[in-house]
Every structure is written in C-alpha cells, then in structure tokens.
UniProtKB/TrEMBL annotation:
Gene3D superfamilies: MoaB/Mog-like domain (3.40.980.10), MoeA, C-terminal, domain IV (2.40.340.10), Molybdopterin biosynthesis moea protein, domain 2 (3.90.105.10), Molybdopterin biosynthesis moea protein, domain 3 (2.170.190.11). It catalyses: adenylyl-molybdopterin + molybdate = Mo-molybdopterin + AMP + H(+). Belongs to the MoeA family. The keyword 4Fe-4S does not apply. This is Molybdopterin molybdenumtransferase. One of its GO terms (cellular component) is cytosol. Keywords: Magnesium, Metal-binding, Molybdenum, Molybdenum cofactor biosynthesis, Transferase. Pathway: Cofactor biosynthesis; molybdopterin biosynthesis. Residues 173-310 form the MoaB/Mog domain. Catalyzes the insertion of molybdate into adenylated molybdopterin with the concomitant release of AMP.
Length: 393
C-alpha cells in the first residue's frame, strides 16, 4: 500500500494538474474578483498635471503680498500664466497654473482687498501634487495573475482602461453524497443529518468568482453517482464530498473509474482529511473530499481553494501564514500533520473547542488553523505556532 502523501507534495501534484482557463475581455467595472490575464499598463499619467493638494491660493514667486488675479477650480483651470507676485484662488484637485510654484493654505492666508499675505509664506513646492506622482503612461501597474480588488479596479480605471483581459470563470461542480443526508435541514429523520457540505464548499468558493453548480445530496449507489458525474461533463473542476474513504459504501473511486477518470493520488498524511482523492478526466480535475464536515472544510481550504486560484492564474495560490503564541497547552501529534481549529485574540491563539472532525460548532467559531507538524511533542502554552488565517484563505 502506498504511503499517504505529505501536504506540500500533494498540493504541488494537484496544482500541476490545474486546468488552464482561457481569457476574455470584460468591462473593468465588472472585473471585481476576476484574475488578470494580461498586465495592466497605464494609458495615461496620473495626475496628468500639477494639482493642488489643498484649498487655498496658488502663488508665484516670493513676495510680501500676492495680487489675486483669478481662480482655478477642479475641472475648470485658470487659463492664464502667473508672473511673480500674482496668485489665484485654488481648490483641492485643481490644476496649478503655469508660473505658480507653491500653494498657500486657505487658513494661513489673509485677504486684504485682493492682496494675499501669509506669515510665513510657504516654501516652493508646498502642497502641490506633481504630474505623474501616482504613475506615468506605460508604467506596469498590475501584473498578469493579480486578482482584482476594489482598489485595483479603481487603479485600472484611473489608468485609462475601460476593459480588462481576465481569466474566464472556472466551471465547478460540487457533488454532495451520502445516504444519511437530507436535502431539507428542517425535515431530518432520526437516521439522517442535514446536507451541509455542498453549501459550505460553494460558500468557500464564492470569493473566487467561479461558476458553481451543486448536485445532491446523492445516494451511496453506483448508479446515482454515475448520474451525478454525467451531469458534470462540462466542468473544469469537480469537487465531491463523502464516499472517498475505504468503507463498503465509499463508492467515489469506482464511480470515477467507470466515468473514465484516472486516479492521480489518494490519501494525505494530514488530520483531519486523510482520505482526500485526486483524479483527472481529460482537462477536468476531480477533487474527492472526506464527508466529515470539518475534514471537508480543511481539505477544501488546503486543496480546493489553491486549485481554483492556480486555474485562474493567480501568482500565489496558497493561504498566508503567521507565527502566534498559543494560550493552550497542545498535545503531542501522531504520524499525521494536524490542523487544529482555533481563535485568534490579542495576537495569540486558543483552541476553538472540540477538535472532532464532525464538530461544526468549533469550526464555526474558528478564524484560523493551528498547523502542527507530524510527530510534534506536546507544546506548553506560550510557545509560538504556525497559523493559517481563515479570513485570508
């Protein structure tokens, strides 16, 4: 029997299989959450001219007093050229007229019948945003593989881009399987539990802006699984939950084989989440997650999210980590790397509750995962541990 893979090796092998999605051009204002398929190169300079950073007076040269000769407003610049000793009233964001070399704050100015004085006068360059302060035309502002946030969307617009080339949305099918699952959470018989994994996984994928089609809950029969997989013919990625273990009714492997998929690898040396399965069918990647809800969540976090990011072409598909001190004593770890559900508070972490792989209460309370290497000794409170932040995953 092949030994379970380590986390990083399994992640690397999975991402090497990631489908290569084509690109499309869409309106920049519709690009939030999408991943750039091309660099964004500035088509204009920002600001396009010297602008005032404050409300006040644009002054020309050193003087005891400056003669007020006009006004420059945002969107309505002064049309003339200032000479030494002249000034114009100016508003924030307005163009600094030719000849002006500084801006006097409104609250520091005194207007004596059109003669503007200040004590002391501002030095040259004060309160002026020079042309190109932010960027110049032909600067590379965003690189291919960058996911568009609200601020990046604004930057692309400011750079003159009304459209952007982005990776098309991945088509993802999520299949929830298990005889014990009830589609109606309000109508469970004693031998049933509400089907929650499919909805949970779809919610985890939502920030990645992919097209998700949920199927299930699907009974634990070969025929039902075959029917569900047949409905995933056009998927780029198929994610199953349940049926990937070794029990008599864990039928994902044979169902995938019957569908024409090839198993790439199976079983990962992590806890929770050992029975993770990866397969391919043409360009489609199939990710078989365990059925226990915590195991399903953790493996989706560690594998499904990076896979979707890699398929979209993101630079760094993995979640960031940090070192924090633990408030709790942590037990020794066995042969599998463990991910403990935890809560961060005041720069420290504490366990969120029960670490059983079915305990949704602790998972719902958690905002991070403590990463405990295999064979780690018991760790006393106060020691630093590596933590995955679930809020940036």
């Amino acid at each position: 029997m092949t030994a379970p893979l380590g986390l990083e090796e399994a992640q690397a092998r999975l991402l090497a299989l990631a489908p290569q999605l084509s690109s499309e051009r869409i309106a920049t204002e519709a690009a939030l959450g999408r991943v750039l398929a091309e660099d964004v190169i500035a088509l204009r300079t920002q600001p396009p001219a010297d602008l005032s950073a404050m409300d006040g007076y644009a002054l020309s040269g050193d003087a005891q007093a400056w003669r007020l000769v006009g006004e420059s407003r945002a969107g309505l610049p002064y049309s003339g050229v200032l000479t030494d000793g002249e000034c114009v009233r100016i508003s924030t964001g307005a163009m600094v007229p030719p000849g002006a070399d500084r801006v006097l704050l409104q609250e520091d100015a005194r207007d004596d019948n059109g003669a503007i004085t200040a004590a002391p006068p501002p030095p040259p360059g004060r309160h002026i945003r020079p042309r190109g302060l932010d960027f110049h035309a032909e600067d590379v502002l965003l690189t291919r593989g960058t996911r568009i946030t609200a601020a990046r969307l604004a930057l692309a617009l400011a750079a003159g881009h009304g459209t952007l080339a982005v990776t098309r949305r991945a088509r993802v099918v999520v299949i929830d399987s298990g005889d014990e699952l009830s589609a109606d959470p309000a109508a469970c018989l004693p031998h049933q539990i509400p089907a929650s994994n499919g909805a949970m996984i779809a919610a985890m994928l939502a920030p990645l802006d992919c097209e998700v089609n949920r199927i299930g809950p699907v009974p634990d029969t070969q025929a039902a699984l075959a029917d569900a997989l047949a409905r995933a013919e056009d998927a780029d990625i198929v994610i199953t939950s349940g049926g990937a273990s070794v029990g008599d009714h864990d039928l994902i492997k044979p169902a995938l084989t019957e569908w024409g998929a090839e198993i790439a690898f199976w079983k990962i040396a992590i806890k929770p989440g050992k029975p993770l399965l990866v397969a391919t069918r043409g360009d489609c990647v199939i990710l078989g997650l365990p059925g226990n809800p915590v195991s399903s969540f953790v493996t989706a976090f560690l594998f499904a999210l990076p896979l979707l990011r890699a398929a979209a072409g993101e630079h760094d598909p993995f979640a960031r980590t940090q070192k924090l001190r633990t408030r709790d004593d942590l037990p020794a770890v066995g042969p599998r790397r463990e991910f403990l559900r935890a809560v961060e508070a005041d720069g420290e972490v504490c366990l969120a509750g029960s670490q059983d792989s079915s305990a949704l209460t602790a998972l719902a309370a958690a905002d991070c995962l403590i990463d405990r290497p295999a064979h780690s000794p018991a760790l006393p409170a106060g020691e630093a541990v590596r933590v995955f932040n679930l809020r940036n995953g």
